[in-house]
Amino acid sequence: MKTDTPPTIYLKDYTAPAYLVDTVDLDFVIATGATTVSATLAMRRNPAVAAQPLVLDGEELETLSVAVDGEKVPFSTTPTTLTIADLPDAFTLHTVVRIDPDRNTRLSGLYRSKDGYFTQCEAQGFRRITWFLDRPDVMSTYTVTLHADKATYPVLLANGNPVASGEEADGRHWATWNDPFRKPAYLFALVAGKLDGLFDTFQTASGRSVQLAIYVEPGKLDQCPHAMAALQKSMKWDEERFGLECDLDHYMIVAVGDFNMGAMENKGLNIFNTKYVLARADVATDVDFENIDRVVAHEYFHNWTGNRVTCRDWFQLSLKEGLTVFRDQEFGADLHNRQTARIREVRGLRAAQFPEDAGPMAHPIRPASFVEINNFYTSTVYEKGAEVIRMIQTLIGRDGFRAGMDEYFRRHDGQAVTCEDFVAAMAAASGFDFTQFMRWYNQPGTPHLAVDSVFEAKTGRYTLHIKQSNPRASDNHPYLIPIRIALFDAGGQIIAGSDRTLLLTENSQQFHFDGIAAEPVPSLLRDFSAPVVLDYAYTPQQLTLLLAHESDPFNAWEAGQRLASTLILDATAAIAAGQAPVWPASFVDAARRLLQTQAERGAAFVAEALTLPGESTLAEALDIVDPDALHAARNSLRRHLAEQLEGEFAGLYAGLAPHGAYTPSSEEAGRRALRNTCLAYLLELNTPAVRQLALQQFRSADNMTDQFAALAALAQTECTERETALAEFYQRWQHEALVVDKWLAVQSGSRLPDTLATVKRLTGHPAFDIGNPNKVYALLRNFGANLARFHTPAGYAFLAEQTQLLDGKNPQVASRLARCFDRWKKFDGERQKHARLALESIRDHQGLSRDVLEIVNRALG
Ligand code: B3K
Ligand code: ZN
């Protein structure tokens, strides 16, 4: 049976709210089986809008009473609205509802997790707590009282400052919090739980003292210091880079193991997935430590970009998300390693956002319509959104960008605004005309640039001819695209004066360089100055020169990726045609030279440069993907490098051995990354000696980075050491939930042919819990990203079945799982037949959520 078509919401239909809420008083009586929420709202008509009935939002609320100015009034309800007509211009609305957080498996609104009760209100979770105008342009100040059993829930928290607390009968207690800042309902939060706290303070530049707290499950306090340090560093960084000081007296972070996404920036009371708080060297990897820095910073930075200035409506999501991702990227680059940070950002963009922008879910960073807003917390809104902000900075310079930020806050502090408002502030501060640039906000799809060059020896003129196109856009108007470039001479030096930023504004445009003595090598799109695909007919010699000499680390890395991509894609075609792949000696030589330069170029860079482009990124370059041939080609190149460079890899592996106890510094992390890259290449040889080496590293490592790297490499290799390591790992870490997630992910991401059978078996293992989003992501979604193992008839049927199962519990997470099917039309006819059947089976599932339905309808569309 088909689910009814849910309505589509359009940006063009936006209208201002008919009523405003000045103050919100909430009283929560928390008890097992039911929580009672009493709400007192001081409301008035919005004078700017014509008189109309009040329509409040609600979901799964049991309404116990409704009163206006202390009197019962007539009202009507549907499952999602409560309507009251004939209201005075200003009034107090009092409602009482009952909700059931213990049975809230969607993890949206108020829900139960192991250690207590938690909330998640963005985007539309507040309406699952009480009747309200649940939209971001309705901003109010909140006073919240919680009542709960004292022994079971000793910690009672809400946004803002503690006002009063006390004891009640029957071993219960209460606490009242007041948040003096006006905020939209999506930033509301409360927590009632048994939690340990780590406390510290931060002194702001103007001398105010902010009380900091991180609350976690009892017994985990020794995994909190890294997050606390990250918070303090972010607070300092935002003062220095953007002049933004913390406005709060209390800043709290609470970690919870059941959480749909990474973290949530609720005003003064962030709620985090444990994954982005808990870290200790023996349980968290270098990448985990760095991610925690970035996510803690991201949520803190939202306090200005998102909370002080928020979104007018959910179409403007990138206003806060793109900007805040850009800010956390910059923070991460300053804190760790700017060069590899940029490389990793682009690697991530190409693995996730480019495919999204080329597939059924393609949308502009500011979408024009949606069915379910939760489906638009995407890598387009976040990561491409951040690239758009980065381009603004490139166009007006760092100082211009800072002046634009100052202007943005001067104009809009305390308001709910649009992307136009942000760009207008940037324009006012810099004098730059962003009219054409707005196309980046309004069109889907990745622009393609085709670049040709002509050199005239006679005149010394070098000309670049650049054409842009974007077949996904609704028209063929050109984008404004900043293209950083430099020209290199045959000796690998930049030709003086050739280093500049070209502004491409036409569909086809020429750029001249005069006084050039000999045909140069162009280095195009340095530092990835725009989120585009760029084609230029580079020769392998030119790329080898750039890989060796380009001083912009991004484009040096890019040259290596271009070399490898061409080889792997050619080999894919050869393998599909039954031929053996050919690997030129020049590529091996270039890799050898890279290994020799790790002292000068940094181990972290060399590790990135030796990592071949991923299969999902490579697949985007193919019209029809043969996942088996692509997989075989990429593996064959890895093995070829291992065979040719065995001595170099082994030498470097030994040379980079840790000299002392683990420290998480970026330099040490770089050494570990390169050493573990060497180990993974060596394991391609699958000799008993290398397997023993990996097992020995696995057993003796004093940190999770090295232990997990050895496990991950073994997990890709058919051997008894693999099974030994997997068993020992689980045995040792079965009580650390986040480490168990790694154990699941390493198996679901394995290239071994029986991976689907393993994943199926693991769904029945005690370590797996379909109700826990982290477990679903680790086992199921990670399997969906495993190109060669997922894209099979049985793989499709399996994930379709799991998506349906999950949809009944948690539609948001189910919908993310359904996204694994996005690229199904890129595969051959036989695969497409099975993917279609799988998608149709999901679509026809009775009672399917609108979250999953939107994804599946678009995929089938
Ligand atoms: N703003 C939240 C995301 C909320 C997702 C709702 N489905 C986390 C963040 O971007 O910081
Ligand atoms: Zn965010």
TrEMBL record:
Pfam families: DUF3458, DUF3458_C, Peptidase_M1, Peptidase_M1_N. Its cofactor is Zn(2+). The keyword DNA damage does not apply. Residues 445-536 form the Peptidase M1 alanyl aminopeptidase Ig-like fold domain. Its EC number is 3.4.11.2. NCBIfam families: pepN_proteo (TIGR02414). Belongs to the peptidase M1 family. Aminopeptidase N is involved in the degradation of intracellular peptides generated by protein breakdown during normal growth as well as in response to nutrient starvation. This is Aminopeptidase N. The lineage of its organism: Bacteria, Pseudomonadati, Pseudomonadota, Betaproteobacteria, Rhodocyclales.
